[in-house]
Specification:
This protein has 715 residues and is mainly β. Helices cover 6% and strands 40% of the residues. The protein folds into six domains: 4-34, no CATH class; 44-157, Immunoglobulin-like, CATH 2.60.40; 165-276, Immunoglobulin-like (Sandwich), CATH 2.60.40; 279-408, Immunoglobulin-like (Sandwich), CATH 2.60.40; 426-585, no CATH class; 594-714, Mannose-Binding Protein A, subunit A (Mannose-Binding Protein A, Chain A). The model is unreliable at 1-10, 396-460, 463-468, 472-479 and 486-541 (pLDDT under 50).
Length: 715
């Protein structure tokens, strides 16, 4: 019996044993069968993907790139007969140059066949072969029988010899206050970016050759580990690189040196990344002011990088003083530093009640900075000295201080014998010494800063009279020395200390009408915040004034000798002053209301309303109407006193859709739409809310979120 599995073995002899018997005798025999296999299957090229490598490199011909199969032929007999050898490289078998023009599939499977490019500018190379099982003629490729040679293609890529290039390199300056109370600057692709056509972003490496000196780098992913050596472009794209500012150092900049590299070792020249920021703080930390000072400006300074906008909030801690009784602050607690601005004034109105009481203290605190770091002077203390009998005296603790008076911001009290603040016709005489000959007369506003002087040595002597008038106060505003006098007489200024060194300067004070000028007038809301720079052009038809007219100088009177005219700053421009204009200004607004453009304004924040309810409240409770916005300057002022928070105004189209009109009946001469509403607005969106950045939006009059509102009355 012949087993089936034995018959499948090619060329193996098969034996069959048998017995022959005639009944008497038996004989054993063996029947031998020899099988010969017949190879009818052709070899099949199942993979011929080719090889890809960079110039000068060596690549392996692996089974996933080149494979020959045959069901009835062993691997060692499946042979690639080479018809053409590579032109720009050589084939290797087991590490040596291929001598015979063939190799087997077993050589390929054992990873013994390789190709090495010889270099040069060639981009394509190949060799051709014929596959055989050493029995049959021909082989199968893509289902067809071939007898001609086929190609194995070798693609040669140019070697990456260029380093990544910088496409963005800017100073990093956007400071953020982190959750842990630290300050940090994110380094992102908007600040630092490199590109390489041959390299992915995660392979573009920024190697740190010299790290920052005043802080450190962190990777915000995971545990926030420190970065000492390198980071990738992918990290920058993901916004995970953070520079932490060292709070113990009073510095405003840092630098980091780095070099860009790719995986092949190409590197660009070293580069420098600058990190810049600014510190915001009070210019002084202690003030002592007389109760009758009127307006107290507090200076906030920004040191360091100032080319970006920055913000800081002010918090008031009353301590022993009372808000509204002893002092009044503006509703806006957010201070904005525009690009290039390094100082900002935040004004507080000190209330003079004429009562004798103890000195009061309150604090102003800086917090919540945006795009800036808080300095060390984050808190300033203000002591209000009681003006007993029209005079006030410095506290005992101040007398023990070793510093000069102006270093603590002391507003000098009235000396003995001088007029009280209630004297009619009170003026501040501002004079630059010794060269200037111009005279400025101001209305109850005290400039900031002053110089300690011996008041007994300076005199204003009336012309034609021997009576000496003492100044009520002396202080310095930058380069100007300010003398505060009470009275309306023609005077000349001289130094009484020495007849040999008299310094005289003739000054003429205009005689005023019988109307008196208020001395301790509470500041209007449109001059609560000021800057040292003016954003308004000078009036060409007017004389050359020593300072541009700004909100800071609103109400300031200036006498021009060459024109023999008196001019007044209205907050934007110098205008000729006359008794008639003074009479109009003397019409004051009710307590808590603020004057601007001939109207009194009141910001209502206690109870927010819809537009309809706000209009009714203005009419019935405040005897006015929702505010009418007259000009762009008026809009800016309203946005400022609102604390930059949304509020309702009187514009609406409830009567005729698409026809907008003011609730007070004024003509629509100015608009400030964020997006111009359609001619036929949606039902209900017929009223206007001042929203982000002071832009107007049409909103539902009766429904929706309630907001603050501003009521106005015409003077």
């Amino acid at each position: 019996m012949v087993k089936q599995e034995s018959m499948l073995k090619a060329t193996l002899p098969l034996f069959a044993r048998f017995i022959v018997s005639n009944g008497l005798r038996t004989k054993h025999g063996v029947f031998e069968v020899t099988l010969e296999t017949v190879d009818k299957a052709l070899p099949v090229v199942t993979r011929n993907k080719g090889l890809r490598l960079v110039e000068g490199a060596t690549g392996l011909l692996s089974p996933d790139l080149l494979q020959l199969t045959d069901p009835d032929t062993p691997l060692e007999k499946l042979t690639f007969l080479l018809a053409q050898l590579p032109q720009h490289g050589q084939l290797y078998l087991q590490g040596t140059v291929l001598l015979q023009p063939n190799f087997t599939q077993q050589d390929v499977d054992n990873r013994n066949v390789a190709y090495r490019h010889s270099g040069g500018d060639s981009r394509i190379d190949q060799f051709t072969f014929v596959a055989t099982d050493r029995t049959n003629k021909g082989f199968v490729v893509d289902g067809r029988v071939w007898e001609e040679p086929v190609s194995f293609t070798i693609q040669v890529d140019q070697l990456d010899k260029t380093a990544p290039k910088i496409t963005h390199l800017h100073s990093a300056s956007q400071v953020g206050l982190l959750k842990n109370g630290c300050y940090g600057i994110y380094i992102t692709s908007r600040v630092l970016k490199a590109s390489d056509p041959d390299t992915e972003d995660d392979q573009i490496i920024f190697k740190i050759s010299r790290g920052p000196q005043h802080g450190h780098l962190e990777n915000t992913t995971g545990t926030g580990e420190f970065i000492h050596e390198k980071f990738s472009q992918k990290d920058l794209n993901s916004k995970t690189i953070l520079y932490i500012i060292n709070p113990s150092l009073e510095v405003n900049s840092d630098v980091m040196e780095f070099q860009i590299m790719d995986p092949t070792g190409n590197s660009a020249p070293p580069q420098i990344l600058e990190l810049k920021w600014s510190h915001i703080e009070w210019s002084q930390t202690e003030y002592e002011v007389c109760e009758n000072v009127g307006l107290l400006p507090l200076e906030i300074t920004r040191k360091g990088y100032s080319m970006d906008s920055a913000f800081v909030s002010v918090k008031v801690n009353p301590v022993s003083a009372t808000v509204g009784k002893d002092f009044t602050v503006t509703p806006s607690k957010l201070i904005q530093f525009d690009p290039g601005m390094s100082a900002k004034m935040w004004n507080i109105a000190i209330t003079y009640d004429g009562l004798e009481e103890d000195d009061e203290v309150f604090e102003v605190i800086l917090n919540s900075p945006v795009n800036a770091v808080l300095g060390r002077k984050t808190k300033a203390a203000v002591k209000i000295l009681d003006s007993k009998g029209g005079q006030c005296h410095r506290s005992y603790s101040l007398n023990q201080n070793k510093h000069n008076a102006w270093e603590k911001g002391i507003w000098r009290p009235l000396p003995p014998g001088s007029s009280s603040p209630t004297t009619s016709g009170s003026f501040h005489l501002e004079r630059k010494l010794p060269s200037s000959t111009r005279l400025a007369v101001t209305r109850g506003e005290s400039p900031w800063g002053f110089e300690s002087m011996d008041l007994s040595r300076m005199r204003l002597r009336p012309r034609g009279n021997v009576r000496t008038i003492h100044p009520s106060s002396v202080y310095r505003n930058g380069t100007d020395i300010i003398y505060n006098y009470h009275g309306t007489v023609s005077l000349k200024l001289e130094d009484d200390s020495s007849s040999a060194h008299k310094q005289k300067a003739e000054v003429s004070v205009i005689s005023w009408p019988q109307k008196t000028i208020q001395v301790a007038e509470l500041p209007q809301a449109d001059k609560v915040e000021s800057t040292t720079d003016s954003h308004f052009p000078r009036q060409d038809q007017l004389p050359s004034f020593p300072k541009n007219c700004t909100l800071e100088l609103r109400g300031l009177l200036y006498f021009e000798e060459s024109f023999q005219k008196l001019y007044q700053c209205n907050g934007t421009a110098w205008k000729a002053w006359s008794p008639r204009t003074k009479e109009v200004e003397d019409k004051s607004c009710p307590a808590g209301w603020h004057h601007h453009s001939g109207y009194c304004h009141s910001l209502i924040m206690e109870q927010k309303h819809t537009w309809t309810a706000a209009a009714q409240a203005c009419r019935e409770q405040h005897l006015g109407s929702l505010v009418t916005v007259l000009t762009r300057q008026h809009m800016r002022w309203l946005w400022y006193i609102s604390g930059r928070r949304p509020f309702w105004i009187g514009l609406n189209d409830q009567v005729h859709a698409g026809h907008w009109e003011w609730i007070g009946g004024e003509p629509v001469a100015f608009t400030n739409w964020r997006k111009l509403p359609r001619q036929h607005s949606k039902p209900g969106k017929n009223c206007v809310l001042v929203h982000r950045q002071g832009k107007w939006q049409a909103k539902d009059c009766r429904q929706g979120k309630p907001h603050n509102y501003i009521c106005s009355r015409k003077l």
